[in-house]
Specification:
Elements (H helix, E strand, L loop, with lengths): L4 E6 L2 E6 L9 H16 L5 E6 L22 H10 L4 E5 L2 E3 L1 H8 L2 E4 L4 E3 L13 H9 L1 H10 L3 E2 H7 L4 E2 L5 H12 L16 H11 L7 H13 L4 H16 L2 H16 L17 E4 L3 H12 L4 E4 L3 H20 L5 H9 L1 E4 L10 E4 L5 H14 L5 E4 L6 H5 L8 E6 L8 E5 L6 H13 L3 E5 L7 H18 L3 H11 L5 H8 L15 H7 L12 E3 L5 E3 L1 H14 L8 H21 L6 H11 L9 H8 L1 H10 L6 H9 L6
Helix pairs in contact: 1-2, 2-3, 3-4, 4-5, 5-9, 9-10, 11-24, 12-13, 18-23, 23-26, 26-27
């Protein structure tokens, strides 16, 4: 096998080049090749300096994660970076694209770092539940300071080359397109000078930095092993010899990688990639060309959906029934873009570029020029069927027709057209311009190329897409229903909204069922008849307690939307208890977990058995990216595997639930949902 590493010489400078597409991952062959290059430089007196660079789009963008769990082939990355640093001749890392994880650690071990302005540096290991294991927690504080090291290692977000230069991580910025020449010139300048080893630099220790960082990020890191381990490690080893620190780093790494949280995060990492594969469809199937998208409805969802395509450079025709609704919708879109620009995430030119691709109109016929048309009106089957009947007359042959429905039957909608093969569901999550999840709903007659095109488009607009079958609520909302039903039942049986929400937040959810109801709006789905009171939610809605937007829902809210327990809600719950004659009992945390979380797993098993999801890991992806399930628990089906399916079955039986046959079968056989 040809090595991905080549060495060439420019005068007395040895250039070690990696060409390991797509991202120059630091797999065994790459590590061996770099090691050989370093040995070549060491053994040749004619070589005075070394430049490490990469071909293709990026510098080393991390370790080869396919090696996780397999026997390590020498040299390991920690050994390699130590060998780079130990060389008595200056080593310059020439960075373009991204230097992430192991790539950043290679750069840190080099004596100097030069980067093009567009380059980025990062230590994203924390996102896989581990820590930088090749000296990253020890070299980064020495090179860029403790504060930068804490930010980068605990959050995993990359920084720009300019930020890296300001922090001392980058020594020099190169000219775009001229990196190698600039790196060789830099190497020539430092030949003969004593090499600057990162591991030999001192660390400035200020206890207040750690204290402040912990306090600032307490909420963000709650319940998470990796960031807290990293903080402790950097604090405990700061000021100690590098060798001692790196030993502690290794121990911390091993402990984390053997833990459940890292397994969960790695599961989600691979699950996301698996979700993109559509069972039964060839990967090389010809796709339909999507040059212009149509969106019906300029409300919250329609506007958010449109922004995804505009941001990806795809023109959008958005249609409304009334001018004021159209103006309001496009105004909100512009406002959202301007807010993004104000945060520095877009330029004013980019805002105008995106809005310039938008064609707002009252003319339904304008959708005739679109290749993909997405209906985003309210959840009413009759309305949706009427729209799709009209679309059938207007849309050009081969156009894909999609509904953004959250619950309704795609096959019934498709039947309103003469082309059900072109119809599918595209269920975006609110806010649609922010949320990463997209449920692609496969109808009974949806053509393979339509499904594959939808998956390809989802990647273009940077969504994580999951294929779902036609059933009420698809995957996510179908599993949400038993949780919400049981939570509401428990209110009548003696629990408080706060008690139930507390259990969910402690589990790692961003909020509990009732906090979520208040945020989304208690009035969502309400029949709007104040005289028709059939449950607690109706009672709240009838009194105008619509959630945060009214400063009153399941909780009372102050002007800053801080919640407090509501005496009025307690009264309403008590009235309903008495009216329905519901017996009271003490509700334990265990009961809340079983009735709101175990029931979700049970529903997930039914979804799998009915083939409404392709695989258990797809369900996990839906809940992590669409509903705030804590990634470090790996999604509901992975979490059930870690809890033990036998325990799940016993809990469900204890509280009188009918156990899904697939769940029971797997529990009895000692199997897992995710193999």
């Amino acid at each position: 096998m040809t090595s991905p590493i080549t060495t060439t010489r420019q005068g007395d400078v040895l250039i070690i080049t990696s060409d390991n597409p797509p991202v120059n991952a630091l797999g065994a062959a790459v590590r061996q090749g770099i090691q050989a290059g370093i040995q070549e430089a060491k053994g040749d007196d004619g070589i005075k300096a070394v430049v490490i660079t990469c071909a293709g789009k990026t510098f080393f963008a991390g370790a080869d994660i396919t090696e996780f769990g397999k026997p390590m082939q020498e040299p390991s990355l920690p050994v390699l970076v130590d060998e780079i640093e130990a060389l008595d001749k200056p080593v310059i890392a020439a960075v373009h694209g991204t230097a992430l994880g192991g790539g950043c650690e290679v750069a840190l071990a080099s004596h100097y770092r030069i980067a093009v302005p567009s380059a980025k540096f990062g230590l994203p290991e924390v996102k896989l539940g581990i820590l930088p294991g090749a000296g990253g927690t020890q070299r980064m504080p020495r090179v860029a300071g403790v504060e930068v090291a804490l930010e980068m290692a605990t959050k995993g977000d990359p920084i720009s080359a300019e930020q890296a230069k300001a922090a001392g991580l980058v020594d020099r910025l190169a000219t775009e397109g001229n990196l190698l020449a600039d790196a060789v010139a830099f190497a020539q300048e430092v030949i003969g000078k004593p090499v600057s080893r990162s591991s030999e630099r001192p660390v400035t220790v200020d206890p207040a930095v750690f204290e402040g960082f912990r306090a600032k990020n307490a909420k963000r890191f709650r319940g998470m092993d990796a960031p807290n381990t990293i903080m402790d490690l950097i604090e405990q080893t700061a000021g100690k010899p590098y060798a001692e620190g790196v030993q502690a780093e290794r121990m911390g790494f091993m402990k984390l990688i053997m833990g459940t949280q890292s397994a969960a995060l790695r599961h989600i990492f691979f699950a996301e990639r698996k979700a993109a594969k559509i069972d039964g469809i060839a990967e090389d199937i010809a796709l339909r060309d999507i040059k212009r998208v149509g969106v019906i409805g300029a409300g919250t969802m329609g506007g958010g959906i449109s922004m995804n395509f505009l941001s990806a450079g795809i023109p959008v025709t958005i249609v409304e029934m009334a001018q004021d609704a159209l103006d309001r919708g496009t105004g909100v879109m512009r406002k959202n873009y301007e807010a993004t620009a104000a945060k520095g995430r877009m330029t004013a030119e980019q805002v105008e570029g995106a809005m310039g691709l938008l064609n707002p109109t009252l003319d339904f016929g304008a959708l005739g020029e679109c290749d993909l048309i997405i209906e985003a009106v309210y959840e009413n089957m009759d309305v949706k069927k009427e729209i799709f009947g009209k679309l059938d007359q207007v849309a050009k042959p081969g156009a894909i027709l999609a509904s953004n429905t959250s619950y309704l039957n795609i096959d019934e909608i498709a039947a309103a057209t003469s082309r059900p093969q072109d119809v599918l569901g595209l269920h975006f999550f609110s806010p649609a311009n922010v949320m990463k999840l997209l449920e692609i709903v496969r109808g009974a007659k949806t053509a393979d190329d339509v499904l594959a095109t939808a998956m390809a488009v989802s990647k273009k607009i940077r969504k994580v897409a999951v294929i779902a079958g036609v059933c009420y609520g698809f995957i996510g909302n179908r599993m949400l229903m038993p949780r919400q039903i049981e939570a509401n039942k428990m209110l009548l049986e003696g629990a408080t909204p706060e008690q139930i929400d507390k259990v969910h937040v402690a589990f790692g959810m961003p909020m509990g069922p009732f906090q979520m109801a208040d945020l989304a709006g208690v009035d969502i789905g309400w029949h709007r008849d104040p005289n028709r009171i059939e449950n607690i939610r109706d009672a709240l809605a009838a009194e105008g307690r619509w959630g945060q937007k009214k400063n009153a829902g399941f909780y009372d809210y102050d002007e800053k939307r801080n919640p407090s327990n509501s005496p009025r809600v307690a009264e309403l719950i008590a009235e309903w208890r008495e009216k329905l004659g519901v017996p009271q009992h003490e509700i334990t945390e265990e009961e809340i977990v079983v009735r709101t979380l175990y029931t979700m797993v049970n529903e997930g098993a039914l979804i799998l058995a009915e083939k409404m999801a392709q695989r258990a890991s797809d369900i996990d992806v839906v809940w992590v990216y669409g509903y705030g399930w804590p990634p470090y628990r790996g999604g509901p089906m992975f979490w059930a595997d870690t809890e033990g399916l036998k325990k799940i079955v016993e809990g469900l039986e204890k509280y009188g639930f009918e156990v899904a046959p697939l769940l029971r079968e797997k529990a009895e056989k000692g199997e897992k949902f995710n193999k």
